Amino acid sequence: MRRERLHQLPGPHQWKKHQRNLGMSMRVERSSLDQVKKRFEANKKKMEEKQKEYDFEERMKELREEEEKAKAYKKEKQTQRKRRADDDDLEEDDEMAAVMGFSGFGSTKKTK
Length: 112
Hints:
The chain is an all-alpha fold. The protein has three helices and no strands. Keywords: Metal-binding, Nucleus, Zinc, Zinc-finger.
């Protein structure tokens, strides 16, 4: 039985031909000192902009708000689960009482 491969990457000995067929040149341009300095300056400016955008207090405030939302959601889910469980228990108790032939699970003691 022959396996058909949809897409196969070229092996190590075929990479050069493959990249040349895709239109890539295999030669790397030599950078001058001025080009390297300009690139460093541009990267440094990018990093400074990112640091300015990052405000610690604002981030902490956002995290607190997210935690509060998560707690409220979790609490709501828990109360819904409890309500469903209570409703199911009451229905089962009523059904059980009807099957057993009496109206409830009360005590036999008489109250004053």
